Amino acid sequence: MTGTWFLFSTSARTEAKLLAVLDLITSIIWLSLCAALICVLYLSPEMLQELVDEHPDSTRDLGKLLKFGAIMQAIILTTLVLRPAISFILAIMLLIGAHKRCYLAVRMCLVFSVIYIVIDLILLLPRTIYLQHGSTFVLVYMVNFIYMVYQWRVVYQLMQDLSEDEKGEEENDTNTDDTVVIEADADDAAPSA
Description:
Layout: H1 12-43, H2 45-54, H3 60-67, H4 70-100, H5 103-122, H6 124-130, H7 134-192
Helix pairs in contact: 1-2, 1-4, 1-7, 2-3, 4-5, 5-7, 6-7
């Protein structure tokens, strides 16, 4: 609709679809990795302990996880799974909203994206302190944060475009109704004369 510049396409709708597919792919990969970690942790914790014993410096975070009790492990793993699960749901909402031009789905995606970004910012400090490679995490997080803000901008533009489309359709509908009424009046008047 507007002359907005995007990275991969010329329209907010196409850009939103591309970003949604990228988010779906990365969420599925991340969920698969988390599922593998959970399976190994609960089915074969001794294998993970051997890995930690062989490489104590590079697996410090995994060693901490193994030292926690089952409840704390469940809490940590749940937070690991929640982020990609929420991202997966938002990506589906965005893909459906962009494909079907559904204003409500795009708007919900926009609102939940803002909440997602704020919660992610709040959890940045605890994650940075807990993790072994905090500076690497912060760098990766900043790249991800820039991506999330860019995605929010695309979704916001898509929402504006859909709003303009709806307003244009409403104006066309009112003009069409007036034209039909005028034509109907003209047809009714013509045979009587």
